[in-house]
Design goal:
The chain has 485 residues and is mostly beta strands. The chain has 2 helices and 32 strands. Helix content is 14%, strand content 36%. Strand 26 and strand 27 form a beta hairpin. It is rod-shaped.
């Protein structure tokens, strides 16, 4: 058993050694897949180690038959297919196969071998046809025009290629890195049998444009050709059109300036005639524009809404600020103290670079106004509290004040005549001076006097000696007696 294992190990080591020897003895054509343009010339190289005595040979294994074409430099096969084939050798260790004026029929699998051994290497040769230069459409000169945020079809056409190529797409920002596009890519192809099975390939890219790629590039590449060190390709500049964005809106309210400044970023650019400055949503002005910046002289006397509109063929950009007298207000903030402005959506984010004395006066005025308002509110509260206190006092303990009917000083108290007490029948009692009744006009001081008499009893005498008896519930009532001189 031990002897068998030794024998198997010996065979295995011998096999490994042979394989190593074979790989070192033969240097076949590389790479394994190669191409030659139709009507072109191509060379397949092959060489052996100097220690190997056997010759090199070339076979055609396209159909799996292994047809021997050349043994050393001698041509073996008489087939006309190989009439444009030859071998060249500068020394005994080298045998290179040359295909001249390559035709489509020369496609195939070819093997270089050390004659009399199984040591061999094969190569697949593809006779290719390089068609017309790739073409990108639609084109405006050397540019492809698209619109920001919209999807457009860009087409790349490869006409008369063999084999069928694959169209790949790339794009890059201006000065940026190239990025392959893999979404929204498709292609169709049609074969031309009469032209050596060449194909026309149409690749389509559904491209959603971004203004970040304006002045960048889009590129299509035809891949799958072995004969080309560099794949056929073509490039176009991206012309991404987009609506204006207001990049600067400033009001300089200093006495020696008093000016609105507006500029925008857009493609196509906004012409000077398409800028508008709108004040308080009512007054519309056309500014003066030069070198990409538009200006309008404007002297505001109070906080004022100032809006700048810029319009091109794609749309209109707009932004608003609140212009403050004497201040510099801008939509391009710097790292200084923020002030109040209003942007497109109503947000406020501007800067006051030079507030000036008017702004300080406004702040002081606001503080003073707040103080005055606080004082007025305090006084109102005070008077309301006092008035409420007086009402409470009168309702709880105030006495009837005499009113001077003769126009005298009512602040001095007068002696009030004592009203005659009533008996159980409602008649006045006799006084101490001989039962003389006190009459309403016995009022020597000329005072108006009101006596409140609340009673739950029958009404006073009717005049015929009989009392009137009420059938309803007793009612509180007030007798008002007036004493006039």
């Amino acid at each position: 058993m031990e002897a068998i294992l030794r024998w198997m190990c010996t065979i295995l080591l011998a096999t490994i050694a042979i394989e190593r020897c074979q790989s070192q003895d033969l240097i076949g054509p590389s790479p394994a897949n190669q191409g030659v343009l139709r009507d072109g010339t191509h060379t397949l190289t092959c060489s052996k180690s100097a220690s190997v005595e056997n010759q090199l040979s070339w076979e055609d294994d396209t159909d799996g038959g292994g047809i021997l074409m050349f043994l050393g430099t001698s041509k073996i096969s008489p087939e006309t297919k190989y009439s444009n084939f030859e071998v060249i050798s500068d020394n005994a260790e080298e045998l290179n196969l040359v295909i001249n004026t390559a035709e489509v029929e020369d496609d195939g699998v070819y093997i270089c071998q050390i004659a009399g051994t199984s040591t061999q290497q094969q190569v697949t040769l593809k006779v290719e046809v390089l068609g017309s230069p790739l073409e990108i459409t639609p084109m405006d000169g050397d540019r492809v025009t698209v619109t920001d945020g919209e999807t457009s079809n860009i087409v790349c056409t490869a006409t008369g290629y063999r084999p069928v190529v694959t169209i790949e797409w790339y794009h890059k920002k201006s000065g940026g890195q190239e990025v392959q596009i893999t979404e929204g890519v498709s292609q169709t192809d049609s074969v031309n049998p009469s032209d050596g099975d060449t194909s026309d390939v149409v690749g389509t890219l559904e491209y959603t444009a971004s203004k970040d790629y304006n002045n960048g590039e889009v590129k299509c590449v035809a891949t799958g050709l072995y004969s080309q060190e560099n794949d056929p390709q073509t490039t176009a500049t991206l012309n991404v059109q987009y609506e204006p964005t207001i990049t600067k809106l400033q009001y300089d309210g200093r006495d020696d300036v008093n000016m609105v400044i507006c500029s925008s970023d857009a493609n196509p650019e906004v012409s000077g005639a398409d800028y508008r400055i709108i004040v308080n949503d009512t007054d519309v002005y056309t500014p003066t524009c030069a070198d990409g910046e538009c200006t309008l002289s404007l002297d505001v006397q109070y906080d004022t809404d100032v809006r700048c509109n810029a319009t091109n063929s794609i749309g209109t950009g707009t932004k608003t600020i609140i212009a403050v007298p004497g201040a510099v207000i801008t939509t391009t903030p710097e790292p200084t103290t923020a002030a109040t402005t209003k942007s497109d959506g109503g947000d406020k984010d501007a800067i006051s670079n030079d507030p000036g004395p008017n702004v300080v006066g406004i702040v002081v005025g606001v503080i003073v106004a707040l103080i005055v308002v606080a004082v007025v509110i305090a006084l109102l509260v005070y008077f309301l509290v006092i008035k409420k206190g007086n009402k409470t006092k009168n309702s709880q303990g105030s006495e009837l004040k005499p009113v001077n009917g003769s126009g005298g000083d009512s602040s001095k108290p007068k002696d009030r005549p004592t009203p005659a007490p009533r008996n159980s029948k409602g008649d006045a009692h006799d006084n101490e001076e001989g039962k003389k009744k006190v009459k309403p006009n016995d009022n020597p001081d000329g005072l108006l006097y009101a006596q409140l008499d609340h009673s739950n009893k029958p009404a006073r005498n009717s005049g015929n000696g009989n009392n009137i008896i009420r059938t309803e519930e007793p009612t509180e009532y007030a007798d008002v007696k007036t004493f006039i001189v």
